[in-house]
Description:
By secondary structure, this protein is an all-alpha fold. The protein has helices at residues 3-63, 75-78, 83-109, 114-138, 143-165. Its main location: membrane.
Amino acid sequence: MRLWPEIQKSSSSTSKGKLTEIEDLERQTDRQKMVVQKCINGLLLIHFLFMVIVTPLIDIGHILTWYANNENGDAPSSIKIPHFAVFLILFEHLLVWPLCIANFYGIFKGKSWVKKTCLIYGVGATTAMAAILSEMIRSSGAFSTLSSIYVPFLGFALISTLNGLVPNY
């Protein structure tokens, strides 16, 4: 009779040991996921800071083509912009640029709603980049040089979309 309580104690201590090992593994994987999430948020923070500063400067030059002279033959002003691209630039200023500001603020301050705004930004920017890249593929002239500019933005848009889809850690 005395052996039975000792066996129960030893079996309960081994089950507690297994539970603590499992909990430790879960904590370790959660820490690893948090580190990956922090790295992605840091990368996106730099991207959104860049987008907040540079987007108005570049897009104003495309929208105000009447102001830019074509006398010097500058590449940005000599390229005729398709009508859908002007719409995408306006779309960028009305939706994407404010989302960049919101995402920068949300990531910087650690707000809980930043996942949703990253998802909205990522889907909108991916759609715009898909239209731009498909037009560049159809016109063979400027694909090699411009693709090196637009493909990283597509990558950041996809990272932002995936960041919006994964849960918080």
